[in-house]
Write a structure and sequence with these properties.
The protein is mainly alpha-helical and 60 residues long. It has two helices and no strands. It is elongated, with a radius of gyration of 15 Å. It comes from Streptomyces variegatus. This is AMP-binding enzyme C-terminal domain-containing protein.
């Protein structure tokens, strides 16, 4: 699946801008309304502090 997605990206976007790797994660951080918290994913990737997690699903 990963190889197929990478090949699709290269065909549609071109090799210069296509992603080099794809990470699959079953436990994406989501808000209470079910939206993925892209801010938190970006912070994880860059090694930055997560910040306010009060809107994270499951937090009280």
């Amino acid at each position: 699946m990963e190889r197929e997605l990478l090949a699709f990206g290269r065909r549609k976007l071109g090799p210069a801008v296509a992603p080099r790797e794809i990470a699959f994660d079953q436990n994406l951080p989501k808000t209470r309304s079910g939206k993925v918290m892209r801010r938190l994913l970006r912070a994880r990737e860059l090694g930055l502090p997560a910040g306010d997690l009060s809107t994270l699903e499951g937090s009280t």
